[in-house]
Amino acid sequence: MSDDDATTTPTDCRERFAAMSAKCADIVSTSTDGARLAVMGNAYSFIDDLRQWIEVLPSDGLKQVLIFAARDYEFAMLALSQGHYKYAFAGLRAFIEHSFATAFFTAHDFDRREWASGTRDRHWATMTSEDSGVVSIAFARAYNDILEPDVKFYRSLALTMYRECSEYIHGNYERDDRPTPSLEFDEELFNRWHELCATSRMVVTFILVLTFRDQFDPSANESLRDAILDQLGHIEQLRVNLGGTGTTEQAQ
Amino acid sequence: MTDVFYYRTEDIRPDEIRNYYVPTAQDEEIVSTLRSANPTILQGSRGTGKSFLLRVAELQALDNFDTDRVLPVYMSFVRSSLIHTTDPDQFRNWMLARICSRMLRAITRQGLIARESSLVNTLAGGSAPAITVASSQMDAVIDAYEQSYRNPDQPVDTTSIPTIESLRDLFEDLCEELQIRRFLLLFDEAAHIFRPEQQRQFFTLFRDLRSPFVTCNAAVYPGVTSYGPTFQPAHDATFVKIDRNVLDTNYVDSMREIVEKQAQSNLMTNIEKRRKNFAILAYAVSGNPRLLLKTVARAASMREREVSDTIKSFYRSDIWAEHSALGETYKGHEPLIAWGRSFIEDQVLHATKVKNDQRRDEERDESTAYFWIHNDAPEPVKEAIQLLEYSGIVNRGDEWVRTTRGETGTRFAVNLGCLFGLEANPASTAFEIGKHLTPRRFTEYGANHSSYESLQFDPMSVAEPDAQAILRSQLVRSIGVLDITEFQADKLRELDMTTVGQVLEADEMKLQEAYLIGPVRSRQMMNAAHASVLEYLSG
Question: What are the C-alpha distances in Å from B5 to residues A41, B162, B478, B511?
């Protein structure tokens, strides 16, 4: 909040929070106004995709991790809608981490148990290790070798995206002329968050397909199949694997 | 958020080069050759990555110095275009001073000289402290030459510059004293276009420096480099050409990796989702990374419409701008430059498109971008083609290619982007052309083809250009001639820098205060502006 706001705010903290909440509500209106409503709706619909994945996961332990990821995603959207941009990027990054953890713990159940009991942290560097992480050649060969040609790219994309989220959290992005952060709608940050969110949806879907492809039958679960193709339909070998055509298709 | 690409190696910090390196098999082989004990001449058109590979070789040699004891010394001669004194040996003296300065810097940075050295005293004229005095003496000479364009009549004191013989001896003695196996000299921008006398002096020096203790390597442009009477290309160096062949199976993937090294996540996502459109841009650049980064920046969404528009605008006009600008600067060669453009646009591209259209109608999976010139074609024709090679409009392929009539000549490939630019909707048709290229199909231009008749050029009538006059005319030109982004150009205009000369003489600190963007971006922009000025002045 700016200094101007401080001179006019109520002294009671309840009223203070109520005033901020009212401002947040205004920002929500702006965030969902006009064309932005479709953008927000499209992003929000991904939570349904995550619910479908949760249902096909083979164990309660893994389900719980992906549920955390879904909550991070929803919270990130809430923070974005209300103008809390730093926390929106933080929530998005947490979503990515929990999603990767879901895949990682598939191959490392002991780690998952320790993490669930609070005795071990998950480490981004470990989960994305080039040699043994969830976007490594070795992992792809073990879980879903049709995606082996693409893991190198998706690893690079995941690292780039994660770094960009972190820059917004730690304030390292180069904006010398940005005003002092305050609670207001910011078009540029709104758009940038959605760009990163779109990329994260594609990367997370890739990780989940890479790890859990054998947990469902695409012909019996068309909804999940469509959700996957919505994100990754440009990968021909995956398209064929899910029962699609082998012609070269791409988003226009 | 828009991506900001490094178009030039000079814009990248040397220690960050490895972050952008894509180790294809061919590039690894080139770097290995550069690091070997054999002198190497690296040929490549503008923007193909010559400077970058020299820097990679330097980095790898530094990484392995403790075991190999081969000390790299990288130096660029891009500023030689600023030398304008009355001294007939100015270029040679400047080169010797540059070599000494860079060598001192290399051994100092490696921590090899922590005490006064009697050898370095030689360069300092016997006074101490040796390192700083020697360095400053050489730098003073270099600076005097590079500022000479302001006062051409002012003589430069060259008494501190060693002879080639004493420099060669110095290398040997330094190797012995510092336990260096050999020095690896990496000369960049060594041979500027239309300066044959400078080129000859450089290659004489290149040859004369050769010893077991010094390996010389140089990056040059194809087609426009003179080696002089004493340098024998077949014997005095290994020639290596940068040739990212579009026919290679991994071509598109490796070009994609080059972009991804610099791309933000949203561009990476766009490229991933519209792979075919990216492949079109990759094919269009015919192996030139700088062109790829530029065209990708223009078509960042990778949507069909944007890709088509970019190909049409860039390859119908922009790519020709630099080539045509050579004719404006070097009037004596203007007939060659103009004819070359006309030959490609009116003859080669037209004939090639007709062939490709016909094969498409016949549903044959074959396309071409190749043409063949008879070995006995007139010399001016060959010279015009060489200038097109320099500009990257054509790539030289195999020589001594025999046609069905038994005649021999050289096969060339025209830039694919120029070919795609002729399509009504490149995004719809270009991919198939690129994917089905075959060098077996080419248009032939015999020894006396009718298209040669319009070229009237007598090379004997063209004197070596008046470099000083040309430099003066270049310095007053608008910054619009520089190869910088529109954003960078706008920022320069805001600071009342509207001519090439003003940018050249700009004070960097002042500019960094004036820019309203962060220090990293402002430094990059200033470096880019300076580099583009020097590149423009060097032709």
Answer: 33, 41, 23, 20
Chain B residues near residue A160 by CB distance under 8 angstroms: 263-265, 268
Contact B348/B422 with Cβ under 8 angstroms? no
**Residue A92 pLDDT:** 97
Return the DSSP state at A82. H
The B residues from 235 to 294 touching A (CB cutoff 8 Å) are 260, 263-266, 268-269, 272-277
Specify whether the CB–CB gap between B46 and B75 falls below 8 A.
no
CB A232, CB A242: distance < 8 Å:
no
Contact B438, B365 (CB under 8 A): no
Q: Is A216 left (phi over 0), alpha (psi -120 to 50) or beta?
A: beta
Q: In whole angstroms, how large is the CA radius of gyration of chain A? A: 20
pLDDT given at position B509: 64
CA distance A86 to chain B (A): 17
Q: Which two tokens stand for residue B470?
A: 């040309």
- Rounded distance, CA B75 to CA B9, Å? 13
Contact B132, B180 (CB under 8 A): no
**ipTM, interface predicted TM-score of the complex:** 0.84
Name, in order, each residue with C-beta under 8 angstroms of A90's C-beta and a sequence gap of 6 or more: A76, A79, A165, A169
Sign of CA dihedral B281, B284, B287, B288: negative
In sequence order, the β-bridge partners of residue B42 are B219, B240
State whether residue B518 sits within 8 Å of chain A by CB: yes
Q: Most A CBs within 10 Å: which of B261, B269, B304, B435, as the mutation test of the A interface?
A: B269
pLDDT tens across B294-304, in order? 999 999 999 99
Q: Answer yes or no: do B266 and A157 touch at CB < 8 A.
A: no
Across the range A117-132, mean pLDDT stands at 86
Would you put residue B126 in left (φ > 0), alpha (ψ -120 to 50) or beta? left
- List the one residue out of B260, B298, B266, B5 whose CA is nearest residue A192: B266
pLDDT on residue B330: 78
Tokens of B8: 């030039």
- Identity (one letter) of the amino acid at B247? L
**How do residues A49-73 score in pLDDT, each as one tens digit?**
999 999 999 998 899 999 999 999 9
For residue B265, the one-letter residue type is S
B358-to-B97, B362, B363, B433, B436 alpha-carbon distances in Å:
59, 6, 9, 12, 14
User: With 0-12 CB in 10 A as exposed, 13-18 as middle and 19+ as buried, what is A152?
Assistant: middle
Give the per-residue pLDDT at A6. Answer: 47
Average pLDDT of span A176-204 = 84
| β pairing state of B408-414 and B394-396 | antiparallel
- Residue A20 to residue B134: CA distance in whole angstroms: 67
Report how far apart, in Å, the C-alpha atoms of B221 and of each of A36, B142, B201 are.
51, 24, 16
Q: A-chain residues within 8 Å CB-CB of B429?
A: none
Instruction: List CB contacts (< 8 A) between A161 and chain B.
Output: 265
Half-sphere exposure of A47 (CA within 13 A, CB side): 16
Report the C-alpha gap between B504 and B471 in whole angstroms.
12
CB atoms A160 and B304 under 8 Å = no
- Contact residues on chain B for A230, CB-CB shorter than 8 A: none
**Higher per-residue pLDDT: B80 or B242:** B242
Helix, strand, coil percent values for chain B (each to nearest 5): 55, 10, 35
Residue A130's Cβ-side half-sphere holds a number of Cα atoms within 13 Å equal to: 5
- Closest alpha carbon to A206 in B338, B269, B95, B90: B269
Which one of B1, B260, B303 has the shortest CB-CB distance to A192?
A: B1
The two tokens of residue B531 are 């580099």
Q: Is residue A203 a contact partner of residue A23, using CB atoms and an 8 Å limit?
A: no
Q: How many whole angstroms separate alpha carbon B420 and alpha carbon B438?
A: 16
